[in-house]
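Box 3.1. Reading complex inputs
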Amino acid sequence: MINFEKVNKYFGDFHVLKDINLTINKGEVVVVIGPSGSGKSTLLRCINRLETISNGMLTVNNLSVADKKTDINKLRTEIGMVFQHFHLYPHKTVLENITLAPMKVLGQSEEEAKQIARKYLDKVGISEKADSYPAQLSGGQQQRVAIARGLAMNPEIMLFDEPTSALDPEMIGEVLDVMKALALEGMTMVVVTHEMGFAKEVADRIVFMDQGQILEEAIPAEFYENPKEERAQLFLSRILNH
Amino acid sequence: MDFAGAYTWVNIKFLLEGFGVTLQVAFFAIILSFFIAGAVGTVRYAKVPILSQVFAVLVETIRNLPLLLIILFTFFALPEIGISMEKIPAAIVALTIFEAAMISEIIRSGLNSIDKGQIEAGRSSGLSNFQTLRYIVLPQALRRMVPPLVSQFISLLKDTSLCVIISLPELTHHAQVIYGQNSGYLAPILLFIAFMYFAVNYTLSVISRRLEVKKFNPPGSDSVSRIFPLYS
């Protein structure tokens, strides 16, 4: 479904992604971990062309993401994205945040869009906040709205860029629960996170990155029990034993 | 000081006529400069190739010239290359050129002040560049632009008085005409026109504050009223 083939990316002289080869299949939950600056977020952001790749081949649903002929706006409707800092639209109510893209991009009627929005708000457990503004919600609630906003487009893939890193500890659980439920339903998910518990429990595969390279790819049990790469062992010992 | 002599009905009527011209010139200059500035500011924000560089040069040039010079130039120099205008259109053109340059900067910086994450959220949900500008960036930027825009409009209205240099029959010009006849009228007449300028401009700023607090700030957001409680 998502396929990286020898993908490189530079920011000026800085080589952020080095020869990335990665295939993500339909229904898979892939968790990308690694130290900060390792290129995990950039990798994720390439998938919906928030970042452009420098060379190599990146396809989503067999469409080349970098190709100028690819209708990127159409491709993006298939890919939901959740950001570290939520990025809800502060001038719109929760409901309006969710219905904007379905109405303007998919051409849904307001009625239909609202109905779908309410369904997803219900799913993320905050249907009572439909008419609130983002600033009136807690961080955890905002992030759940952001997830509902992504889901309302009925995407095939959901990308999560450190979705819990900006949250107070007591709110992390509520967001992870929503993500777990989503994974169980078979959503294809690529998640950049430091939440090791989530990775262990939910991921089908762990991708470990360092300095722009994928150093190790493994199923969680294998990765956590017995990381092959020295860099991965060091990383795990640092974040697990503190 | 001769208040009784200064405040005759004839004089006041003459001042009101002048004020009519002031308001007329300011009104057209505000409307025109706002639309031109909207286009210029958006083109520069969107970094449209070539056009945005051309606008950048124009804006920088105009912004760094005195308005008085632009007024003089429009009325006295342009006729030498075949563009001659009556006083009122000349005043409107001169003010529009200057204010459009200033306002385009307000619009550009207002658009730029919106967090890039907002744009990424919009684009990643499949909205086009234009839709993202229209539904996400602009409504938020507009809210932030209201205070500097209104203060620029107030400046514009006050700056119409510089048009005395081309004898535009506006408020300050008419005041000069009246106290030119009798120096005892000078202070009373200046006080009177000061009051007129103040009344209109103060009304404008009160309206803008209302707009800012009530219309543009959704509850719970970072509003001016929260930072400066006096505003609400």
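In summary: The interface with chain A takes residues 115, 117-118, 120-128, 131, 135-136, 139-140, 143, 218-222 of chain B (CB under 8 Å).
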